[in-house]
Amino acid sequence: MTDDIFYVKKLSVLTKKEVKMEKKNENTENKIKQVVGFKIGNEEYVIDILKVQEIIKPVDITPIPDSPDFIEGVINLRGMVIPIVSLRKRFNFEELKDNKDTKIIVTKIDNHFIGFLVDSVTEVLRIPTKLIEQTPPLVSKIGSEFLAGVGKLEDRLVIFIDIDKILSAEEKEVIEKAL
Predict the structure, then answer these.
(1) Residue among 143, 148, 145, 144 nearest 161 (CA)
(2) Which domains are assigned to the chain?
C-alpha cells in the first residue's frame, strides 16, 4: 500500500516536461551506435556502419578528367564503376603516398556507390549514444558541414562524419555525369 502512495506522490511532483525528459533519457541511455573507425593523419573518425558496404584494399584507380582534385577517379569493383574520393584531400590534409594500411571504404549514398580512400581502418565500435555530443567549434581541421558529433571513449575522442554530406549536390552531379 505504501508503495502505491509513494508512486503517486512521485508522479505528482514531476512536470510534463520532466516526464518527457526521463522518457527521452531512458530511450537514449540504452541505444548503441555501431560505427566503422578510420584514420586520416592522426585524427580518428567514424561513420555509421549501416552506410558501409565493404572495405577493400586500394586497386588501380582510373582518373576522371575535369573532376575536383579530391576525386581520385573510378575503380571497377565486380563490374560496378565506383568513384573514389580521397578523404585526405577532401579534408584539406597534406597529401601522402598510399601505404599498406590505406583502404577504400565503399559506401552507398543516395543509391550510388562511392568509395572513400582513408589512411587506415581502425575498428568497428559500439558507442552508447549518451557518449556522443555535438561537435564543438574548431574540433577538427575539416569543415563543420561534414561533422555529426564527437564520441567520448575512455581513452580518446572520435569524430562522427555524416557521410551523406561529404559531397555537395554539385559534386555529386559532377560524379554522375562522369560515369
Answers:
(1) 148
(2) 1-30 (no CATH), 31-178 (2.40.50.180)
**Distances 108 to 5, 48, 58, 111, 154 between C-alpha atoms, Å:** 54, 11, 18, 6, 31
- Quick check: helix, strand or coil at residue 160? strand
* Cα R_g (the chain), whole angstroms: 21
Question: Which residues does residue 124 pair with via DSSP β-bridges, in sequence order?
Answer: 36
Q: What are phi and psi of 79, to 5 degrees?
A: 90, -5
Q: How confident is the model at residue 66 (pLDDT cuts 50, 70, 90)?
A: confident
Q: What phi, psi does 95 have (nearest 5°)? A: -75, 135
> Is pLDDT of 22 > 50?
yes
pTM reported for the whole predicted model: 0.76
* Per-residue model confidence as pLDDT tens digits over 126-163: 888 888 888 766 655 555 677 888 888 888 888 888 88
**Which residues, in sequence order, are bridge partners of residue 127?**
33
